[in-house]
Amino acid sequence: MCGIVGYIGKDNAKKVVIDGLAKLEYRGYDSAGIALLDRGNLEIEKIAETEDKKKSKILQLDEMVGDKYKDAKVAIGHTRWATHGAPSVLNAHPHISNDGKVAVVHNGIVENYAELREKLLEKYNIHCKSETDTEVIAQLLSVFCAGGMNPAEAMLEATSMMKGAYAIAAIYEGDETEIVGYRKDAPMIVCHTDEGSFIASDMTAVLKYTKDVYFLEDDEMVICRADSMDIFDRNMNKVQKKAFHVDWSIEAAEKGGYDHFMLKEIHDQPTVLGDTLSRRLTSDGSIKLDGIKLSLEDLNNIDKIYIVACGTAYHAGLIGKHLIEKWAKIPVEVDVASEFRYRDPLVDDRTLFVAVTQSGETLDTLMALREAKSKGARVLSIVNVVGSSIARESDDVFYTWAGPEIAVASTKGYTTQLMCLYLIALHMGLLKGTITDEYAKGIIGELKAVPEKVERLLEKERDIAELAKEIYKKELIFYIGRGLDASVALEGSLKLKEISYINSFAIAAGELKHGTIALMDKDTIVFALATQDELAEKTLSNIVEVAARGAYVVAITKEKNEFFKKESDRVLFIPECFDEVSPLLSIIQLQLIAYFVAKEKGENIDMPRNLAKSVTVE
Ligand code: F6R
User: Does the beta carbon of 616 sit less than 6 angstroms from any atom of ligand 1?
Assistant: First the structure.
């Protein structure tokens, strides 16, 4: 989704903002731009369609601007992920008012922009030039300033008329003293250092300067100056905030010698899974959950758990349901956030709402959380980004500690979410007495062995790269499995389609014969997951059925299941493990398959088309 960076201070503002935008590229964008105050003059440069498709647009924007404006000390920049109007220079941000006095960057959607456009036309004879919702903000700010308001007053006035979600930064011609920012339902961080003040959509843009950032809350406004920074509420009262310290290193947000962030993040998994687990184990090996205050009494007051999330995080939630129901014997429903929030779910004060999210900013998940909270539910979130909106609005927060995830396709985000769900489910089971200490120790022993087993799988990635060469031209790929494998199949299929654009879908193996098997023929590839001991033979029967229809079958099973070789064209083995923890291993194979197939196809792996890393609009 769109990314915002703003800087005011003693450094070269163009450089600071362009560097920051480069760090936000991972969020996904199709055009970009920067507005600067050069000796008080408002200058704007934008880029959309480019000749060189392989080269980053931010790099091309940088080259386009070249040495111009190197004395500018104030700038705002933007990466746009088109919503209203096609990607074009006209629609790219920053948007400037018709009188050339105000430049604005915006993330989110102004839902009533059509009505505001009409108002601007009727009342002030102002025609908007672009197709965007954002331009109305620039026009409104300039109208209010022309009417005598100062920039902060104009921002409050304009936002009082706007509906929707927005993070905004604005600068004014002739005023090199401040940048004004505003947030409602869209992420915005701010910080101040000796170099000056910064505004950004997320902390990766400012990691180079500081690890202490402030998160704006809804309806807060920031005024950034070179030597200070103040946050206000809508009544212009100053808001005192605590800075969030983020212990992400700059290197963690770099490729570290890998061809792609996705491959690097796949390889990060042994380390981050080890960290996520070890931070929650005491020296005697028992579980100590930071951030979760749920007591036995609290659990006894819960009739039902909803796990709500989107995409990959939703797939993690499906595994979580299985674990919590099995170990803690509490009924769990899993829902995608965009459905949950609009279906008047049966939630009350005896409901525990669990949000799972890497970014902590996914708008649908955030709105679902607010919906559940308003109905009295207690909210626990499993989040990667420290201090993100969902983390801040939850009663209990359990961080995944995956470090920055830059590739759009989530890998370590997913596996660390799973690790957290294992720990929470065990914790609940132990509290309720529905599992014994001994049983939990057995599972913890298995979880501790996961990082080394993942290493072993990664050492064999060449085999998967070879397999990718055989299948990358196929047009239809299925993922099947039973029990936990059915949920992993969904995630494997999503990984493949989002970065390789191959049509793929996942189905519970037992459901095949109720319709979908009609699609099987000699051109179909089937990845069949069979890691659950009790279900392996049943999945084997499904393999036989699809193979009989000509499908090429790649089975994924445990090392001991040599017999799968007979019925499958290929077998990818995972190390021996308890059935419950196999998702942490089998998904590694599927992540690698998606990666190498996309690589073989020459796709833009880290930034796939049409996708954004952090989905901050509906
Ligand atoms: C897929 C992927 C998405 C996200 C989804 C939710 O690889 O990354 O499906 O999982 O957009 O994002 P978060 O976890 O940030 O709420």
Answer: no
494 CA from centroid of ligand 1 (Å): 10
What average pLDDT does the segment 122-135 reach?
Answer: 94
| Half-sphere exposure in the Cβ direction for 491 (13 Å, CA) | 33
- The tokens describing 587, both together, are 């998904």
Neighbours of 118 (CB within 10 A): 12
Model confidence pLDDT, tens digit, residues 592-604: 999 999 999 999 8
Q: Please give the distance, rounded to the nearest whole angstrom, from the Cα atom of residue 400 to the centre of ligand 1.
A: 14
pLDDT digits (tens, 9 = 90+) for 458-493: 999 999 999 999 999 999 999 999 999 999 999 999
pTM (2 d.p.) = 0.86
Q: Residue 206 and residue 20: Cα distance in Å, rounded?
A: 7
* pLDDT tier for residue 438 given thresholds of 50, 70 and 90: very high
Distances from the Cα of 521 to the Cαs of 228, 269, 345, 462, in angstroms? Answer: 66, 36, 41, 28
> How far is it, in rounded angstroms, from Cα 42 to Cα 174?
8
Is the Cβ–Cβ distance between 70 and 13 less than 8 Å?
no
Query: Facing residues of 45 across strands?
Result: 34
DSSP helix/strand/coil, 353: strand
Ligand 1 neighbourhood includes 498 CB (under 6 angstroms): yes
The interaxial angle of helices 151-161 and 135-146, nearest 10 deg, is: 130
Q: Where are the beta strands (DSSP E) in 400-485?
A: 476-481
Tokens of 252: 């963690």
Task: Find out whether the beta carbon of 276 lies less than 6 Å from any atom of ligand 1.
Answer: no
Distance CA 54, CA 33 (A): 18
* Beta carbon of 407 within 6 Å of any ligand 1 atom: no
Q: According to the model, what pLDDT value does residue 246 have?
A: 83
Q: For residue 159, what pLDDT is reported?
A: 97
Strands (E), 124-228: 164-172, 175-184, 189-193, 196-200, 212-215, 220-224
User: Nearest 5°: phi and psi at 34?
Assistant: -145, 145
Pocket test for ligand 1, best of 260, 310, 357 (most atoms within 8 A of CB): 310
Active site residues: 2, 613
Q: Which band of pLDDT confidence, cut at 50, 70 and 90, is reported for residue 56?
A: confident
Confidence of residue 534 (pLDDT cuts 50, 70, 90): very high
- Judging by beta carbons within 10 Å of its beta carbon (0-12, 13-18, 19+), is residue 333 exposed, middle or buried? middle
Residues contacting 312, CB < 8 A, separation 6+: 358, 409, 410, 413, 414, 491, 494
**Most ligand 1 atoms within 8 A of CB, residue of 26, 266, 362, 616 to mutate:** 362
